[in-house]
Automatic annotation (TrEMBL), chain A:
<dbReference type="InterPro" id="IPR048517">
    <property type="entry name" value="DENR_N"/>
</dbReference>
<dbReference type="InterPro" id="IPR046447">
    <property type="entry name" value="DENR_C"/>
</dbReference>
<dbReference type="InterPro" id="IPR001950">
    <property type="entry name" value="SUI1"/>
</dbReference>
<dbReference type="Pfam" id="PF21023">
    <property type="entry name" value="DENR_N"/>
</dbReference>
<comment type="similarity">
    <text>Belongs to the DENR family.</text>
</comment>
<feature type="region of interest" description="Disordered">
    <location>
        <begin position="67"/>
        <end position="100"/>
    </location>
</feature>
<feature type="domain" description="SUI1">
    <location>
        <begin position="108"/>
        <end position="175"/>
    </location>
</feature>
<dbReference type="InterPro" id="IPR036877">
    <property type="entry name" value="SUI1_dom_sf"/>
</dbReference>
<dbReference type="Pfam" id="PF01253">
    <property type="entry name" value="SUI1"/>
</dbReference>
TrEMBL record, chain B:
<dbReference type="InterPro" id="IPR016437">
    <property type="entry name" value="MCT-1/Tma20"/>
</dbReference>
<dbReference type="Pfam" id="PF17832">
    <property type="entry name" value="Pre-PUA"/>
</dbReference>
<dbReference type="InterPro" id="IPR002478">
    <property type="entry name" value="PUA"/>
</dbReference>
<feature type="domain" description="PUA">
    <location>
        <begin position="94"/>
        <end position="172"/>
    </location>
</feature>
<protein>
    <recommendedName>
        <fullName>PUA domain-containing protein</fullName>
    </recommendedName>
</protein>
<dbReference type="InterPro" id="IPR041366">
    <property type="entry name" value="Pre-PUA"/>
</dbReference>
<dbReference type="Pfam" id="PF01472">
    <property type="entry name" value="PUA"/>
</dbReference>
<keyword id="KW-0963">Cytoplasm</keyword>
<comment type="similarity">
    <text>Belongs to the MCTS1 family.</text>
</comment>
């Protein structure tokens, strides 16, 4: 983000900017994503990125276009330094990241609901986005909780009983690819 | 600091800062971050009510009249600017740019390891140990975390292992998601 200086010994570049930049108006105007709340350039790291994209498309169509065209989500151009811009472009931009996105996990969502009169169930979605085999997962749940479990959709498993709290611990334990932070509690779904 | 922070549970009380206290805070913040001199009136307007939010674990958050966190500290430690403030005034802190590969780790709250600061995609400001820094990222324009260096920049380069910067506050942590303070 800055003019860089080169030292003879290591040829390593350091950031040297200090203080407000001339010609930049502060406060910097920044747009946050309505879905993940982060600066839009970080949406791609959000487990619910697909929902971010939807939000961007609806609310910041220009931003969305820029992100999708692989030019990066810069909503401001803080530096006017031509040299710096050139450097950023030669870093390969976002092309590589973009290609990877399709394989990215979308986070796990847990919800409870009721079936019949008072029977609670737990709904788990998102496992398939981690390339976890749903059949094996369903079997694992049914053993773990000694209860019924079945695949109920493309990427959805229904477990009999309210086991949501346990799943926050069990999912990351069983599948290390799942981070506890990326498990979302949707609460109780109304029918 | 805010990985497990839930404002509902963590906030113990909110007070309007007395004008003498507010003056003291302005003074302390200016001393720590001299570059905000020209902008202090925008950041902490004299006539505005500054709120002091006391939380568990001796965390104290300063919120402006909109209820938005601007600075925070733990015990009598230094003030840290909140990320949203750094987004508006990025020059408040020296920047440490991590490489692209480190982004997802930083966003999960992990501390910043030296290799993520020394690889070709990374760029550092020359700073000492215990310096509060803004964590930037390769190819991105806005800060993704606020941290404090565990080693000087020179040591980060020479040792190139272990934690280089402690991750104090990051996008989507408890402070980021704190509701506006009433
Ligand atoms: Zn988003
Ligand atoms: Zn003084």
């Amino acid at each position: 983000m800055a003019a860089a200086e080169t030292t003879e010994s290591t040829a390593r570049e350091f950031l040297t900017d200090i203080g407000p930049k001339p010609g930049v108006k502060y406060p910097v105007d920044i747009r946050y994503c309505g879905e993940c709340s982060m600066p839009t350039e970080y949406c791609e790291y959000y487990p619910g990125y697909e929902r971010c994209k939807k939000w961007l498309e609806d609310n910041l169509p220009k931003e969305f276009e820029k992100l999708m065209s692989g030019k990066g989500g810069g909503d401001i151009e803080e530096e006017k330094d031509g040299e710096d811009k050139k450097k950023r472009q030669t870093r390969g931009g976002k092309g590589a990241v973009k290609a990877k996105k399709k394989l990215e996990p979308e986070g796990i969502k847990l919800a409870t609901s009721t079936r019949g009169k008072k029977k609670k169930i737990t709904i788990v979605t998102g496992l398939a986005s981690y390339e976890i085999d749903l059949k094996a997962a369903s079997k694992f749940f049914s053993n773990k909780f000694s209860c019924g479990s079945s695949i109920s959709g493309d990427d959805e498993i229904v477990i009999q009983g309210d086991v949501k709290d346990d799943l926050f611990d069990i999912l990351p334990e069983k599948w290390s690819i799942i981070d506890e932070e990326s498990i979302e509690d949707l609460g109780e779904l109304k029918k | 600091m805010f990985k497990k922070f839930e404002d509902k549970e963590m906030v113990s009380n909110v007070n309007n800062a007395k004008s003498s206290v507010q003056r003291g805070i302005r003074h302390a913040v200016l001393e720590q971050f001299p570059h905000i001199d020209d902008y202090i009136e925008q950041i902490l307007p004299k006539k505005d009510n500054l709120k002091i939010v006391k939380c568990h674990e001796h965390i104290e958050i300063l919120a402006n009249s909109n209820g938005e966190a601007v600075f925070f500290r733990q015990r009598d430690g230094p003030y840290y600017p909140a990320l949203k403030l750094i987004h508006k005034y990025p020059f408040i802190l020296p920047h440490m740019q991590v490489d692209k590969g480190a982004i997802r780790f930083v966003l999960s709250g992990a501390n910043i390891m030296c290799p993520g600061l020394t690889s070709p995609g990374a760029k550092m400001t020359k700073v000492d140990k215990d310096q509060i820094v803004a964590i930037m990222a390769e190819g991105k324009q806005h800060a993704l975390a606020i941290g404090v260096t565990k080693m000087s920049t020179d040591e980060i380069i020479s040792s190139n292992k272990g934690i280089g910067v402690d991750n104090i506050h990051y996008l989507n942590d408890g402070l980021w998601n704190m509701k506006p303070v009433k």
